[in-house]
Design goal:
Length: 358
């Protein structure tokens, strides 16, 4: 057994001296491989008498396990070391300045989403998302737009083949169905915005079959129309960067809000020009209202206890107004000259402190 002890020491030394995974594999083969020292000794057990075999078997097995464990431990060490060496080798100095002449740009829609998120984020809103493929119930019925309701025609819906849970599948015509999903997913209070893609069968200078909206939803026990007004006036002024921007709430109708309003901002259109701010004209930019109690009930929210407001606006529309982009279709043509002209520097992340874009 003295022999075995010194064999064990020699094998372990070879393992701990292995400088890389190849050498470790050689040490493993020399010990436990088909012709390895321990394997050979195991084969020898058969020739011993029963009593001796039992003793030697136990000792040999223990040694075999010890060697296997030492190999695993050394392997883990070497792998860590390989990783450390690679990390060191591939290190990137993040403090280096950006390369001059960078040619990538942030698309105006991404920039606008970032700006909207920065403003509402500051007011304590979180960002929620929902699926682009919705079913009839979420897109219409739950929002108090029953079948045959005229609002369904106005939406020029893309219907998809097939059904889900007995409901027709549609490409969502607005981001409002995410209000329903958010209210189903958790109990009030809610304070969220939903930027996302929406779809309608329409195509001209101010419509594209795929476009973007941002939805907003606030639900709690005390929120009232005054909060809705304050929040949206603040948003319009911050987004367009005009501190005293006139903002007007005009009574309107949406099935999912009661009462409902459309929001106009002040502008001038003199001498063929167009400017946002004090002037003699108004421009509609979003829809809003107090969440209809029927919508709350459709989501299992007690409308005698909770109330809130919602709003929705087209992102291309507010981007076009802010950045003077005349045709909505150009957003999706991937024309590099357009992107260079209207795009934004990639490191210029919008924030209320650092600025929200020129
Ligand atoms: N979903 C409406 C649309 O696409 C926009 C809208 C209006 C959303 C009023 C709202 C709202 O949440 O309260 O035309």
């Amino acid at each position: 057994m003295d022999d075995l002890a010194s064999l064990g020491l020699r094998l372990k030394a070879a393992i701990s001296e292995a400088a890389d995974l190849d050498q470790l594999e050689k040490a493993r083969l020399a010990a436990l491989g088909r012709k390895g020292r321990i394997t050979e000794l195991m084969k020898g057990l058969g020739a011993m008498d029963a009593a001796a075999r039992k003793d030697a078997g136990v000792t040999l097995n223990a040694l075999k396990n010890e060697i296997a464990a030492a190999i695993e431990a050394r392997k883990a060490e070497l792998e860590d070391g390989t990783l450390d060496a690679r990390l060191l080798d591939e290190r990137v100095d993040v403090t280096l300045p950006a390369r001059p002449g960078q040619c990538g740009h942030i698309h105006p829609i991404s920039q606008t989403v970032d700006e909207v998120v920065a403003i509402f984020g500051e007011m304590g809103f979180t960002v929620a998302e929902g699926p682009d493929i919705e079913d009839d119930w979420y897109n219409f019925t739950a929002l108090n737009i029953p079948p045959e309701h005229p609002a369904r025609q106005e939406h020029d819906t893309f219907y998809l083949p097939g059904e889900r849970d007995g409901q027709r599948a549609v490409l969502r015509t607005h981001t409002s169905p995410v209000q329903i999903r958010a209210m189903q997913a958790g109990a009030p209070p809610h304070r969220l915005i939903v930027p996302g893609r929406t779809y309608r069968c329409d195509y001209d200078a101010t419509h594209s079959p795929m476009f973007h909206q941002v939805e907003g939803l606030v639900v709690d026990e005390t929120t009232h129309f005054g909060h809705l007004k304050g929040c949206l006036i603040e948003f319009c002024r911050a987004f367009f960067g005009v501190d005293d921007l006139p903002v007007r709430f005009r009574p309107s109708y949406f099935p999912f809000t009661e009462p409902s309003a459309e929001v106009d901002i002040g502008c001038t259109r003199q001498g063929g020009g167009f400017r946002i701010g004090h002037g003699d004209d108004w421009l509609e930019i979003l829809g809003c209202g107090m969440v209809n109690p029927k919508v709350l009930e459709n989501c299992g929210v007690d409308s005698t206890r909770y109330q809130g407001f919602a709003f929705g606006m087209g992102l291309e529309r507010i981007a076009m107004l802010k950045y003077g982009i005349p045709d909505l279709r150009t957003f999706f043509e991937s024309d590099l000259r357009w992107l260079r002209h209207y795009g934004f520097a990639s490191l210029d992340v919008p924030s209320l402190v650092g600025g929200l874009g020129s």
